[in-house]
Amino acid sequence: MTGGTLAEDFQQRLTQIAEATEKTLDHLLGPSPLPGETLRPPRFLEAMRYASLGGGKRLRPFLLVETARLFGIEGEGVLRAASALEMIHCYSLVHDDLPALDNDDLRRGRPTTHKAYDEATAILVGDGLLTYAFDVLADPATHKDPAIRIELVLALARAAGVGGMVGGQVLDIEAEQAKTPHTAEAVIELQSMKTGALLHYAVIAGAIFAGVSKQTREALSAYGQALGAAFQVADDILDVEADTEALGKKAGKDADRNKATLVASLGLEAARKRRDTLSAEAIAALDSFPEGREAHILKEAARFAATRKN
């Protein structure tokens, strides 16, 4: 702690971890081929770097690093895992922005990858980031214990795949074509997969590094699930209340595309109440194990997830 307010301490840690993640990604996405690689095509590598560097809150890396740090685990391996997770997140944004999906021209205040380069390159950038993320996790440089690396890889595959983020994206596309109103239950399930799964993984990955007890892992899991849900409800609300400049992407698109959101299914005021309730649930989950009482920065992250402006 720096002696500032909790919000100031949180913002400082968020910035520090974002910078450390940026530095690690910059290194991982360097021009020199790794053993087993032939070469890294320059324009393609430039596009991968465009999609990954120089933007974003880096909330997922933050959650992974801070959860591990709660148990005294820090260092290069944790940052590598955090960067691998961010690669998955960045790949998902590149693919989501494509014309066949959300068809967005703006991301993080600048042209989306397929606009800055072209659609074929953007598809391959996503493929490259997805594949490289598992390369990074499987490398002994991330953790010397192969059992830890396997657990990190398996958990991320489950969070990012057919029953997680990708499956949630499928449900999101299907929901756009629905002729009947979206139920809150269906929206909550969709969002727990599309957005919540990677945020939950970030917390669980930190627990994997630390080798915590089953009870502690369950508490952290409850925290991660509630925070992930709060983050997405806040996103739904921001799409209604914020403008394009603040968001760094087109505002108001959810209603235009018949997106499955809790604002649409519950109404704006009820969505706000659910967001705040979920944030409080995340904070309470951390109080259920001894170390969690010292998790002030993680608790502030749950507040941030609910109150952020972009």
From TrEMBL:
CDD domains: Trans_IPPS_HT. GO terms for molecular function: metal ion binding; prenyltransferase activity. Transmembrane segments: none annotated. GO terms for cellular component: cytoplasm. One of its GO terms (biological process) is terpenoid biosynthetic process. Its cofactor is Mg(2+). The keyword Transferase applies. Keywords: Isoprene biosynthesis, Magnesium, Metal-binding, Transferase. Belongs to the FPP/GGPP synthase family. This is Probable farnesyl diphosphate synthase.
